[in-house]
Amino acid sequence: MNGTMSKLFSLEGCVAVVTGALGLLGQEHCRCLAEAGAHVIAADLAEENCSELAESLSTRSLGRFLDVTDPDSVRALLDSVMKEFGHVDVLVNNAGVNDMVEDPLLALQESMFENYPLQMWKKFMDVNVSGVFLCSQVLGSQMARQGKGSIINIASTYGIVAPDQSLYCTPTGEQAFFKSPAYPASKGAVIAFTRYLAAYWGRAGVRVNALSPGGVQNGQDTFFIEQYSRKTPLGRMAKRTDYQGALLFLASGASSYITGENLVADGGWTII
Fold this sequence. Notes:
This protein is of the alpha/beta class. The chain has one domain (3-261): Rossmann fold, CATH 3.40.50.720. Helices cover 42% and strands 14% of the residues. It is built from 9 helices and 7 strands, in the order αβαβαβαβααβαβααβ. The protein has helices spanning 3-9, 24-35, 47-55, 71-85, 108-111, 118-146, 182-201, 222-231, 244-251, and strands spanning 15-19, 39-44, 62-65, 90-93, 149-154, 206-213, 262-265. It has a 7-stranded parallel beta sheet with strand order 3-2-1-4-5-6-7, sandwiched between helices.
């Protein structure tokens, strides 16, 4: 890669905040941004673990406590970033909740739409939607004052298409559980909010895009991995590192004329 192209993808001197930094993809997002030169603020509910992650990165980075549903927590994070670095350039809204099939509330009967608990619906909306709203409002407003910045909202293929419930059927034809109504609804809202904010802050120099990843292989049942892979043109689930290029593209100057888009990185899963 020549010097001009390297500069396009460089985040040298930038400050990047990653929410949900301790998650499966959150850790990879942090590593990717640091390797591109950014100072990373790894933010999540367990501050000590965030600090350990930050210390493992290749740039001077910080670990910070963050509850994305608490306005005071989000404002405290911004104050800390500004005190330490004086600016914020990239925000990756990665924090979110997903269905956990080992949770009794998401066993077969309660994962059915007819029985789905209202408190679970509210939890998904609070974290996956209101959390993105709050972090964008607080940290994005600072970007708007600076006249530049990039916000990347982590959405999902299930924000684009409905869940294929047959993927969760065992080889004997039994439905193991149903993908919840709350997850796709919340991720669809994230995509719509991305477009809103891109239009709102475009003239302020703040770009806002969504990244919709496909399923990541992470110890799921063999039957699920095989069924998901058969449905995917590339023939496999994602590796946790498969999204680094897309994330860096949206964070860096390489995408300087792109805003309001939803970059789908799913191995072709949503095209069939």
